[in-house]
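Two records follow; treat each independently.
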Amino acid sequence: MVVARQIKFPSSYSIGSLYAAPDSQPESWQLLEVPQGLITKPENQPINWEWLDEARGTIEIPSGLKLKLKISPAATEHLDALEDLPEDCLHTLDMSRTQVHDSHLEHIEPLGGLKVLELAYTAVSNIGLEFVARLGALHTLGLTNAAISNSGLPVLGALSNLRELWLNGTLIDDEGAEHLVPLKKLRLLGLSSTQITDQGLLRLAEIPDLMRIYMFNTLITEAGARELRTLLPACRVKWRRSQQVRPEFMDADDADLLLSEDLDLDFDRDFRLEAMEDDRFWSLIDLLDWDQEGDDHKVIEPCVAALSKLSERDILAFEEALSAKLYKLDAKRFAMNIGKEAYRGKDHPFSKSWFLNARCCVVANGRESYEEVLQNPENMPKDLEFGALALIAPEAFKRKTGDDMCHCAALSKETFSNFNGWAGN
């Protein structure tokens, strides 16, 4: 491994998880121009982020990689650490589904080289966009279900490099569509579950490079969509007539007004994924075959097989539930009770991966064991691990779809992600 650079985060706590992907992997908006026959080539796949390390201490970054930082929900009050990062060290900053609000965004202003900013499902409002508009290198901005209205959009005109913008579930209407016209380089635009009508839709024809617009659950009509297609022949509109439907539960049968052989990319930005409910999750965990102990893959096989028969959304919901349970166990009081690898203070060696695998062992032992450990950390398994548990969802997803699972759970399972669990470390 050739180390190209180092990034330094606070040494006493983690602010999130760091992911990496090859520099050569293209952005989603770039794939809109890829002929369908080439989409199966590795260099034409959407970015596949792989976990690199927790955002804590000094991290060595191999050459040829771009980085994504997913902020931990528990680290929202410690975002001043971002001010000490090099301007161009991050490709993507994901603050979605955290408690971040407008004042926190002053800490991202030094990240002038940032390419992608995700603020979905946050309390960020028009005021916060003043900080966002200073990030001149941004090409992708996610504001799904943020507190954005028409009056906040004009400042985004400063983002002259913006190619991809998600405003699903915001408070904008036709007036807001007017404010998007200066974004002449936009390729991909998400406006689902807004109050935009045909009038606003047709204003978007003044954005010459638009290739895809998502407008599920809006007020547009078939006539309006067809007229836009006439004005922008290369632009594909995905839409459905307005219904009383929550945007996160859109079906796949939405009206599609261009050729069926056109490239179709849907990146699941229109729904909020909930964790699998407990009874269902634990019933799957109970399928682990401990008669096969010694061969971890055989132990998890019944669970993988059962999960792979469910929907893709169910598989991701299982991963959300597992990550949330492992997150709860990510605390010093549990780490101090895992046997000879126990945490003994920041000045002593401690294996983050072993502690993750030890936490997996707790969950693998079933619901009763998990709840007992939560109540009494001294019941943590000693010198035992079952890291194979983390393979269940990825293997089920691969078996179901033939593709690798690329999903970032709302709560990270990685060690030191739970800031409150390590407070005072």
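The next record belongs to a different protein.
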Amino acid sequence: MVSLLGTMFVFLSSGLFGMWISLELGFFGFLPILNGKAASENEAAVKYFVIQSVGSGLILVSFLLFSSSSSFISYLSEETADIIMISGFMVKLGVFPFHFWFPSVMSMASWFSCFWLSVVQKVGPFWGISGLGVSCWLVDSFVIFLVTTSLVGALGGLAQVQFRPLLAYSSLGQTGWMGLIALLSVDLFFFYMILYTILLVGLLLTLHIINSYSVTNIPGWSFCNGLVFWVFCGGFFISLSGLPPLAGSALKLMGILVVISSYPVTLVFLILSSMISLYYYLSMFITSVSCLGSSNYGLNTSFLDSKGLMLLISSMMVLNWVGGFPLFIMCGSFIL
């Protein structure tokens, strides 16, 4: 897949221009994935193309400033080029204040596109940012924007009733954690992304199986109707917010152990954003337990008939529910 190859080439690039070419390869490779049969998916692809083109243009302009031959222009433009480059990466990632496009695009995308946008398309830019030798004040400014993005993601999710926009704001909430870990430890960033990928894939597969797109269309609490949603889907949702002892809490533990020594103040706001996310996920759970859920939903039986897929989802569910404590130990020993 072209988009995946572009992301892999980012790791192999030894220069800024090679990294930019790799990012563009990943960008253009993702467009056919995003551009589906539905008109809404086509609109999402157009929006994504426009926004990513702006981000790519900013990064390219910064390269031109870096390569300026005039010493006077070079002196003036080095700091400006750093600012423009960071801004370009922020546009591509959907970091505040350039986050507005992310929920709009994801709300019209397929489940697979939601996964690709939340995981694969973030790895390359974060890898690029982690290797930039920019000034300390610019890094600190970027950290502030990352933390603000997490808060925006948490607060934005409060008003959502559709699962796709809710996942978009959840992804924005995770962006702050991802970015800070990427700046401080690339190895732990990849460990974070692997675990986040497992949880997100399990969540998206379960949402596809229950064939539900709205919070108002979740099943009520009964063994027949609610078991699939709340043991599988609800568990993944709550886990991503970081509730112990679920596996997702290991993500937050990793972030806390990495960030606390360098940015202790920002950690308070990151934890606050996770608590807000946990609030509206638990609100869904309480609504369902109170038998206020809907019965107007249907399971996607074609996926239920696939033994391999159900085994995969069941394995992810077991990891989610019982894997928190082992992952706690693994994260703590790996970091300390």
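Discussion point: The chain has one domain: 2-335. How would you locate this feature using only the token line?
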